[in-house]
């Protein structure tokens, strides 16, 4: 079935296997060139480093058909670089940037029927990941590694798309100071599942995590960075050594400064400042830009003046400009759009 014949309108953020995925192996001190395969299943040693000591990391990016009819991916070299840095932190032989980019390109090209058409609002979410596949039993790096890239068609990460969500301040910490919060290690997400389930069971969409050392600064959620807007229209985004450097956030800083000519501050943000902000949103590949309507903490509930029905005006402007760039509706800064041919 071609991509035009499928129903893309009711997709959420879930896994659906598609035809082809990419696999490369690290053995005898080097990465092989990798290839496309059909099988979504993996057979590995019961003592593989990933199974015993969680030696794994991942990335996330989206492929789309643009207004120009191109198959496009947004700044994949930044994901490649971030995976390289994450691998180094986890003692995984880094996946070469060129191998990462080749794998992403091949997966997109091999699955055109699974890339949602322009205007559908959906995307092909690409998930590169690498894991210790060789056996270990003492705590040590694995001797062999597997790098894979699969795709899955997705709609919005939060149901309702641009409808504001509700957050809860977590009593748990996502990342320790001098830990792994700044890299995309699987273990950071393992840590967040208990807190995430608790938030859902209490009726919240996600957690707001505070800094683990002082619990006074805003860090991020389990899967996205924060943006706030001040009363005088300035954008503020938290800076911390233990948050993931979001490619969406880094791009929005440029969009805000150079395209929308808004003032933007990247700095530590105190939780007590929240009441002074007029807009709050999350940003990330999966979340795109998700407006936040309220944040619950044990002391008080903070309601942003933009309410629970629609995004604030600056959040909407950022969303329209970024998604416009990503879909080749608005000219992109040099090098932001990779056309897959
Ligand atoms: N923060 C965390 C913890 C994430 O998992 C993600 C998603 O990758 C982000 C932020 C957003 O990063 P990006 O914009 O690069 O997708
Ligand atoms: C992404 O935005 O790509 C992420 O990796 C977030 C993830 C927790 C779904």
What is the element layout, followed by pairings?
Blueprint: E1 21-27, E2 30-31, E3 35-37, H1 49-53, E4 56-58, E5 61-65, E6 71-74, H2 76-89, H3 97-110, E7 123-132, E8 145-154, E9 165-169, H4 186-201, E10 206-208, E11 225-229, E12 235-238, H5 247-259, E13 264-267, E14 279-284, E15 288-296, E16 301-303, H6 313-326, E17 337-339
Parallel strand pairs: 9-10, 9-15, 12-13
Antiparallel strand pairs: 1-2, 1-3, 1-8, 4-7, 5-6, 5-7, 6-17, 7-8, 11-12, 11-14, 14-15, 15-16
This protein binds pyridoxal-5'-phosphate and 2-OXO-4-methylpentanoic acid (COI).
Give an account of the 3D structure:
With 341 residues, this protein is α+β, with helices and mostly antiparallel strands. It folds into two domains: 3-154, Aminotransferase class 4, branched-chain amino acid transferase, N-terminal domain (D-amino Acid Aminotransferase, Chain A, domain 1, 2-Layer Sandwich), CATH 3.30.470; 165-326, D-amino Acid Aminotransferase, Chain A, domain 2. Helix content is 22%, strand content 25%. It has six helices and 17 strands. It has helices at residues 49-53, 76-89, 97-110, 186-201, 247-259, 313-326, and strands at residues 21-27, 30-31, 35-37, 56-58, 61-65, 71-74, 123-132, 145-154, 165-169, 206-208, 225-229, 235-238, 264-267, 279-284, 288-296, 301-303, 337-339. The strands form two sheets. Strands 1, 2, 3, 4, 5, 6, 7, 8 and 17 form a nine-stranded antiparallel β-sheet that branches. Strands 9, 10, 11, 12, 13, 14, 15 and 16 form an eight-stranded mixed β-sheet that branches. α5 links the parallel β12 (235-238) and β13 (264-267). α2 (76-89) crosses α3. The longest helix has 16 residues, at 186-201. It is globular and about 55 Å long. The protein starts with 20 loop residues before the first strand and ends with a strand. The mean pLDDT is 97. The structure holds pyridoxal-5'-phosphate and 2-OXO-4-methylpentanoic acid (COI). 2-OXO-4-methylpentanoic acid binds at residues 60, 223, 284-286.
């Amino acid at each position: 079935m071609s991509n035009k014949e499928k129903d893309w309108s009711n997709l959420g953020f879930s896994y659906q296997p598609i035809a082809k995925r990419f696999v490369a192996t690290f053995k005898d001190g080097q990465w092989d060139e990798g290839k496309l395969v059909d099988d979504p299943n993996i057979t590995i040693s019961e003592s593989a480093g990933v199974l015993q000591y969680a030696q794994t990391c991942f990335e996330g990016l989206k492929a789309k058909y643009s207004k120009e009819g191109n198959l496009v991916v947004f700044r994949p070299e930044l994901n490649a670089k971030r995976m390289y840095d994450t691998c180094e932190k986890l003692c995984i032989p880094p996946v070469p940037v060129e191998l990462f980019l080749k794998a992403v390109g091949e997966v997109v090209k091999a699955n055109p029927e699974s890339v949602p058409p322009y205007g559908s609002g959906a995307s092909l979410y690409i998930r590169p990941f690498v894991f210790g596949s060789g056996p270990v039993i003492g705590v040590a790096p694995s001797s062999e590694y597997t790098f894979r890239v699969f795709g899955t068609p997705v709609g919005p990460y939060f149901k309702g798309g641009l409808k504001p969500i509700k957050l809860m301040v977590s009593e748990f910490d996502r990342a320790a100071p001098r830990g792994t919060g700044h890299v995309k290690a699987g273990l950071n997400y393992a840590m967040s599942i208990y807190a995430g389930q608790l938030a859902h069971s209490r009726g919240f969409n996600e957690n707001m995590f505070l800094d683990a050392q002082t619990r006074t600064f805003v860090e991020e959620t389990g899967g996205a960075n924060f943006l706030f807007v001040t009363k005088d229209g300035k954008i503020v985004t938290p800076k911390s050594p233990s948050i993931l450097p979001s490619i969406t956030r880094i791009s929005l800083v440029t969009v805000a400064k150079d395209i929308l000519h808004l003032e933007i501050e990247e700095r530590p943000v105190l939780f007590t400042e929240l009441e002074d902000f007029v807009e709050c949103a999350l940003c990330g590949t999966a979340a795109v830009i998700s407006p936040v309507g309220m944040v619950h903490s044990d002391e008080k509930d903070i309601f942003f003046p933009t309410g629970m029905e629609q995004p604030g005006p600056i959040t909407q402007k950022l969303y329209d400009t970024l998604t416009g760039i990503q879909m080749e509706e608005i000219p992109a800064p040099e090098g932001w759009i990779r056309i897959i041919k």
